[in-house]
Design brief:
The complex is a heterodimer of chains A (about 260) and B (about 800). With about 260 residues, chain A is an alpha+beta fold. Chain A has helices at about 10-20, 35-40, 75-80, 85-95, 100-105, 105-115, 120-125, 140-145, 210-220, 225, 245-260; strands spanning about 5, 25, 45-50, 60, 65-70, 130-135, 135-140, 160-165, 170-175, 180-190, 195-200, 210. The chains are: A alpha+beta (about 260), B alpha+beta (about 800). The interface between A and B is medium-sized, with 15 and 24 residues. Chain B: It comes from Rhodovulum kholense.
């Protein structure tokens, strides 16, 4: 690890100010950034920890029924406290990493990083969630901009994620054998006005919506509805753990399983 | 009734108290006053000409004491290779140099180029980034067959090609084997890969060198399985330090699996630098660094052919293997694909004609050497896979074809130069069928089908050769070391014993089992026996622990030394009781005169030995301490039969191991619980190889699976609860304990069972074109196989 300065603001305003400094980098739960620092793959001059800001933590249900999760809320807290309101989301959170990761890692950190194999982006995109920051609200459909890329501006801080709660939902993850990140993960959310299907782990462009399956499932919400569909392997990730063809195949299989589980 | 102490008792592992409470003392726990820290600058490219190393910027950085490069080692020897293999034309293998730090060329990603020594590890690491290494990159030699192309770039410019040796075994049998194939009723051929693995001991390697300028004594603390071997190799061949001025200490060591047998550059460096700087120098390997600096295992590409008669009797076996040596010859690398592999190709079967060809190849990859099983898993895997394939082709039940070919009479001399002393393969197979409930498979198959899952059953036999020996023979085969073991038994005045063994425990539980043996022989409590190992200053010259040799070889030395103690103690007891030594009996820690009620306690005798007031000083010396060396006259031959049941998800290709059963014949057992634990761990590693692990290089020689993000280790939920049995014991006929060794069996016996089971599952589901899938059987590979 290279030497760096660290700020531990306790208010959002202080965090925004701190992030305005030269070469400042926001630090959430540190489950990606700290290992990168340890391996000397990142060398920020200053870290601004967001986990000491109470106003960024916690879960509540808004008047319109949406589930609101503070950006600095840990996966373990989501797993425990969202279970009654949004069980599929709580189940997703309960299966990220291991207990240490779940107790340190935060939803805001995961979304700001936008790892192409992370679980939360699938839930956010499938739910049509809104990402609130210190300056604005961003719709999920506008937020994810490819591998490790998001709509966040320099110094912008995610404060809260607001999830409309679907009538039915499920997340099915097929684990990469070594890292146990999603080799492919599919989140399905069924609302009164249709079904949304988001896929993580598979595409070179990061999380994406499988619109063909959405249309089929909006008409007929049964696993059989997607049995005849296929995903084009073009643009899917190919690596040690699976070819583009295998990932494309898994998307269909897992989508069917998610429908069955929803 | 299970015994509650001594030989045969499942005594709790005494070492676990310190390991489980954080009181172990590992090499990294040792810190010496004035200690400096080393950080290695390693090649980031697989192959290149080293045109310059500029250390000036690094030397100016805070805390830096000195930066070493290959030039500092001009007058120093290279890392020696401990085994000379002679090729099938009678010529010695090509043996390139192996410098401590690279000179002239870098030959694999991770090859050490320079070392920064600084006041702290962080300072050393900071400065290491300022060392400027200039390399003219060369094409990397990676594929073994392409490496043998006459136009292939040379890994070592001084060699005529990239072939270390072309070994034939037994060369004289070749024509007869070929002729048998011409006339065979059936020939089964299988091409397979035994993939490269990274050993991944829980404790990364550490070296701490120390030098006393006043006495000129050097000390090396290191994560080693064999400190005496390191002392000899490093002292005599690399640094020129006589053994009486060099002490090597391997304290608690957190797993080795073979990877800590070898003498590594970092050990020589820290010892050398400590003397240069007159300060202790410590290096602690990071996990990332371990992936590119610990010797890897396996990495064989094989074609195996089995000739059978119309009834499925094996007529002849022929193999051609390309074995990867990596960029340099690690300490015992040449012996693994030859003497620890070719000699095992008979397996449990009376195949009359066998020919094994091995081409060992240099490539721009991390050196490959022994890894749990070392040659024997490679032999077992190819043999048991080709037998399964042959059985399927000929429509013979896989159990029946094995029974039909079992060796049933012992001793049995194989056509590959070894003699099995004892075994009962039918009994072990019967036991396996029972504990695996093979009869109930059809019902479980139906249950799997009802859930939409494919189910398969795989089984296989294995034989291994443990306690490699005797020294005279292995010397003729090219070993540059003896393969005996040693023990000193020191009895204290008040009756307690200290056993100083040349074996080394790095997880095996020797401190418990060795104490059980000695306590049992004398008839005293196990808590009266202390086991000391791991320090060349207070143990007799020994060869350490690998190849499942510790109890069979080291234990035998200990038994001999203890017998000497008992013989002398009987003389003392005879004197005390005014009887003849031959009339003295030792039982339950008491000496008695046969046919009388006269007796003295063990403690009375030991006290007399050190307070010799009433003592036969004219006949024997005072004191009670004996040393013995034991050089076995043969290997031991543990054998067993393993069965695995899997479910395969037809939609994803994911394999789940539903059950795993192991019936082993380890001869006599000292501690059944520890033996079961060894089998459990071995199977986990074997399942890891079969389903998960692979060291994969890209076309440029970069290790793609260079961290746990991409290198899949087996975890608790990847393996089932095991059913293990070691009741079918045919004691070894040539060592005093009748023991055979159990450390590697699990890793040797399990990969073919898993692969046989997966192929069986796919075949039963109608994928009749799938006759083989190369390990690891990842979901994507199994799915791809099902796609045809």
């Amino acid at each position: 690890m290279y030497a760096f300065e660290i700020d531990r603001p306790t208010t959002l305003d202080a965090a925004v100010t701190a992030l305005g400094q030269e070469e400042a980098q926001a630090l959430g739960g540190g489950q990606t950034l700290i290992p990168a620092l340890k391996q000397r793959l990142a060398s920020p001059a200053r870290l601004v920890s967001l986990t000491g800001i109470d106003e960024l933590k916690g879960i509540c249900v808004a008047d319109d029924g949406a589930l609101c999760i503070g950006a600095a809320t840990s996966h373990a807290t989501v797993a425990a406290e969202a279970a009654a309101t949004y069980p599929a989301l709580a189940d997703l959170a309960a299966h990220i990493g291991d207990p240490a990761v779940r107790n340190r890692g935060t939803i805001g950190g995961s979304l700001a990083n936008n790892d192409p194999s992370a679980c939360y982006p699938a839930a956010v995109l499938a739910s049509g969630a809104t990402i609130r920051t210190n300056t604005r609200e961003i719709a999920a459909d506008d937020y994810f901009e490819g591998m490790f890329a998001t709509a966040l501006e320099e110094g912008e801080i995610i404060t809260e994620i607001r999830f409309p709660v679907p009538e039915q939902a499920a997340y099915v993850k097929f684990a990469q054998p070594a890292s146990r990140f999603a080799l492919v993960g599919v989140f399905i959310a069924r609302f009164g006005d249709g079904v949304r299907v988001a896929v993580t782990g598979a595409s070179e462009d990061g999380v994406f919506r499988w619109t063909e399956a959405e249309a089929a499932l909006s008409d007929d919400f049964r696993p059989e509805a997607v049995a005849g569909l296929s995903v084009d392997p073009e643009g899917m990730i190919g690596d040690l753990h699976g070819s583009p063809e295998y990932r494309a195949h898994l998307i269909r299989v897992l989508t069917g399983r998610a429908v069955a589980a929803a | 009734m299970p015994k509650d102490h001594g030989i045969g008792a499942s005594s709790k592992r005494r070492e676990d108290k310190r390991f489980l409470t954080g009181k172990g003392r590992y090499t990294d726990d040792i810190n010496l006053p004035g200690q400096a820290h080393a950080w290695f600058v390693r090649s980031q490219v697989a192959h290149g000409r080293l045109t310059g190393v500029d250390t000036s910027a690094a030397e100016a950085m805070p805390g830096v004491l000195r930066v070493f490069t290959g030039a500092d080692f001009e007058g120093v020897g290279g890392l020696p290779c401990g085994w000379l293999v002679t090729d099938r034309f009678g010529q010695p293998m090509q043996e390139p140099g192996h410098p401590v730090l690279a000179r002239g060329k870098v030959r694999h990603v991770g090859d050490p180029v320079a070392v920064v020594v600084a006041e702290t590890a962080e300072q050393a690491r900071d400065a290491a980034e300022a060392v400027e290494v200039e390399i003219d990159e060369l094409p990397a030699v990676l594929d073994m067959k392409a490496a043998l192309d006459p136009d292939a770039p040379l890994v070592h410019d001084e060699l005529k090609n990239n072939l270390c040796y072309d070994w034939g075994f037994v060369e004289e049998n070749r024509a007869a084997v070929d002729a048998a194939f011409e006339t065979a009723a059936h020939v089964t051929t299988l091409d397979l890969v035994n993939q490269r693995l990274v050993p991944n001991a829980m404790e990364p390697r550490v070296a701490l060198g120390d030098f006393n300028p006043a006495t000129e004594d050097s000390t090396l603390y290191t994560t080693s399985q064999n400190p005496h071997v390191i002392r000899l190799l490093m002292g005599a061949f690399v640094l020129g330090i006589p053994e009486h001025k060099l002490r090597v200490i391997a304290p608690d060591v957190g797993g080795g699996f073979g990877s800590k047998i070898f003498h590594y550059a970092e050990e020589a460096f820290c010892t050398f630098a400590a003397k240069q700087l007159k300060r202790p120098v410590k290096w602690t390997c990071t996990r990332s660094e371990a992936f590119i600096s610990d010797a890897h295992g396996r990495d064989h590409v094989t074609r195996i052919e089995l000739a059978l008669d119309a009834e499925g009797h094996f007529q002849a076996l022929r193999t051609e293997t390309h074995a990867n040596m990596g960029a340099y010859l690690s300490t015992f690398a040449p012996s693994i694909p030859t003497w620890l592999h070719g000699t095992l190709m008979a397996g449990n079967y009376k195949t009359p004609l066998i020919y094994v060809n091995v081409k060992a190849v240099f490539t721009n990859t991390v050196p490959v050497d022994a890894y749990r099983g070392a040659g024997r898993p490679e032999a077992t895997y190819q043999l048991e896979r080709v037998i399964d394939k042959a059985a399927r082709e000929m429509g013979i039940d896989p159990v029946e074809i094995r029974r039909r070919n079992f060796i049933t009479e012992f001793p049995y001399a194989t056509p590959v130069a070894v003699e099995y002393d004892t075994g009962d393969y039918n009994a072990t197979l019967d036991k396996l069928l029972e504990i695996a409930d093979v009869a109930g498979f059809e019902a479980r198959l139906a249950d799997s089908k009802s859930r939409g899952m494919l189910r398969g059953l795989g089984l296989n036999c294995y034989i291994e050769a443990c306690g490699i020996a005797p020294s005279q023979l292995v010397g003729q085969l090219g070993a540059r070391a003896g393969l005996y073991e040693s023990a000193t038994v020191r009895v204290n005045a008040t009756g307690g014993l200290v056993v100083m063994t040349g074996s080394h425990s790095h997880g095996q539980g020797h401190e418990t089992t060795f104490a059980q043996v000695v306590a049992d022989m004398i008839g005293i409590g196990e808590d009266m026996v202390e086991i000391v190992h791991g320090d060349t200053a207070n143990t007799p010259m020994g060869m350490g622990t690998y190849g499942s040799r510790s109890l069979a070889v080291g234990g035998s030395a200990m038994v001999r030394a203890t017998n000497k103690i008992i013989a002398k103690a009987k003389k003392i007891a005879a004197h005390l009781m005014e009887a003849a030594p031959e009339d003295i009996e030792l039982k339950d820690g008491r000496f008695s005169v046969a046919g009388t009620d006269k007796s003295v306690a063990w403690g009375d005798v030991t006290l007399a030995a050190y307070v010799p007031h009433n003592y036969p000083l004219e006949d024997i010396e005072p004191g009670l301490e004996e040393t013995a060396f034991y050089d076995p006259n043969n290997f031991t031959y543990p054998a067993g039969v393993y069965a695995c049941e899997v479910e395969v998800d037809p939609d994803t290709g994911k394999v789940t191991v539903c059950s795993f059963a192991a019936a082993d014949d380890f001869g006599n057992i000292v501690n059944p619980m520890i033996v079961s634990g060894q089998v459990h761990g071995g199977i986990a590693q074997g399942v890891g190889q079969a389903l998960l692990e692979a060291a994969s290089y890209d076309d440029y020689g970069q290790l793609l699976s260079g961290s746990y993000m991409d290198y899949a280790m087996p975890r608790a939920d990847d393996v089932p609860f095991y059913r293990v049995d070691h009741s079918c014991a045919t004691p070894c006929t040539h060592n005093p304990l009748g023991v055979k060794g159990c450390g590697e069996a699990g890793a040797i016996g399990s990969p073919p069972a898993v692969v046989n089971a997966v192929v069986d599952a796919l075949q039963r589901a109608g994928h009749t074109g799938v006759t083989h899938i190369d390990m690891p059987l990842t979901p994507s590979r199994v799915w791809a196989a099902m796609q045809g």
